[in-house]
Design a protein that fits this description.
Layout: H1 5-10, H2 13-29, H3 35-39, H4 48-60, E1 64-65, E2 74-75, H5 77-86, H6 95-102, H7 112-127, E3 130-134, E4 142-151, E5 154-161, E6 166-171, H8 179-190, H9 198-212, H10 218-234, E7 241-244, H11 256-270, H12 272-282, E8 289-292, E9 304-312, E10 318-327, H13 332-353
Antiparallel strand pairs: 1-2, 3-7, 3-10, 4-5, 5-6, 8-9, 9-10
Helix pairs in contact: 2-4, 6-13, 7-13, 8-10, 9-10
InterPro entries: GAF-like_dom_sf, HrcA, HrcA_C, WH-like_DNA-bd_sf, WH_DNA-bd_sf, WHTH_transcript_rep_HrcA_IDD
Organism: Salipiger marinus
Pfam families: HrcA
């Protein structure tokens, strides 16, 4: 059972409607909602005193809270979770939002990295939040490996993939390397790479060096282990995280407390590796997922929400994620279809390119 939906099942019609109206009004205005405001919008005519009693009951259940001395109420994190799980009405995607996202797939869409960058910018633009795009890791088979000396203490390990993609890493080679030991190391690796991805290669290289160390020069063996360790260390972060539109969040509210929350969120966004790892965990779920406040440990201090969806390649394997960060007072009904459509759009792009 989803969090809070048991409470929702136990509520009568009036309590459910009062609760729904409070949350919808708060998400729209950001202001506490009072009983007199609700008397004008409820389907049944009841007194303000009756509504106040209902709101007090909802507060007792932990679904509403009184932020100030005013009589108005706002939803708690539990209340928002219950609303999202049980009462949220997801809208159809607006044509203008669809067109803005589709436009990212125009000229130059052969450059996947560039397209994903434009997708992030468009996503933050249409949602007025901060967008996150976790780009796919490169898992094409490796065609060629080369070690390039840049001096006595610096070298590059260069990988050429079967799809033409080229990546390199700068590292400090073991002392005493010679042109012949570099050639031997490269030849050793290139004899192993036929049809293998980088993740396939890492285990194979370790096994081969362990069993064939006598056959390969010690300097070459050290070079292989040192050079490939650079890839080993970066293997989990080779997926790039694109953050766009963080400045949008500054326009949400002007109160000092809200600005402190935004500053805290900016600090969180700087920890890109942590966020990338979190999004990879979020990839284990299918479809759009919503994390509210402290449900997302990364953003718990800033009290923000994250709406995220994974995307898949042609083999239906999840390879990345897209998401939107904003205050807990997000327009979830509008944001959810936007994130869902963006994930599908990116998935189609990746599938076509693969």
């Amino acid at each position: 059972m989803k969090q809070g939906t048991g409470l929702l099942d136990e509520m009568n019609h009036r309590s459910r409607e009062v609760f729904r109206r409070v949350v919808e009004s708060y998400l729209e205005s950001g202001e506490p909602v009072g009983s007199r405001t609700l008397t004008r919008s409820l389907s049944e005519k009841v007194s303000a005193a009756t509504i106040r009693n209902v709101m007090q009951d909802l507060e007792y259940l932990g679904l509403l809270d009184s932020p100030h001395i005013s009589a108005g109420r706002v939803p708690t994190q539990l209340g928002l979770r219950m609303f999202v799980d049980g009462l949220l009405e997801v809208r159809d995607l607006d044509n203008s939002d669809r067109e803005a996202l589709d436009a990212t797939m125009g000229p130059g869409s052969n450059d996947v990295g560039g397209v994903l960058d434009r997708v992030g910018a468009a996503l933050s633009g249409v949602t007025q939040g901060a967008s996150l795009v976790l780009t796919p890791k490169h898992e094409a088979p490796v065609r060629h490996i080369e070690f390039v000396s840049l001096g006595h203490d610096r070298a590059l390990v260069v990988l050429v993939f079967a799809d033409g993609h080229v990546e390199n890493r700068l590292f400090h080679p073991p002392p005493g390397q010679t042109p012949s030991s570099m050639r031997e190391a490269a030849n050793f690796l290139n004899a192993l790479i036929e049809g293998k991805t980088l993740s396939d290669l890492r285990g194979e290289i370790a096994r081969q060096i362990a069993t064939r160390r006598r056959e390969i020069d010690a300097l070459a063996a050290d070079l292989i282990e040192t050079g490939m360790a650079v890839w080993e260390q970066d293997a989990d972060t080779s997926a790039r995280l694109i953050v766009r539109g963080a400045a949008n969040l500054l326009g949400q509210d002007g109160e000092a407390a809200e600005l402190d929350r935004i500053r805290s969120l900016f600090d969180d966004l700087e920890r890109k590796r942590d966020i990338a790892e979190f999004l990879e965990l979020a990839e284990t779920g299918d479809g759009v997922r919503i994390f509210i406040g402290s449900e997302n440990k990364l953003f718990s201090l800033s009290g923000s929400s994250l709406v995220v969806s994974p995307y898949m390649n042609a083999d239906r394997k999840i390879i990345g994620a897209v998401g939107v960060i904003g205050p807990t007072r997000l327009n979830y009904g509008r944001i959810v279809p936007i994130v869902d459509y963006t994930a599908q759009l990116v998935g189609r792009l990746i599938a076509e390119r693969s």
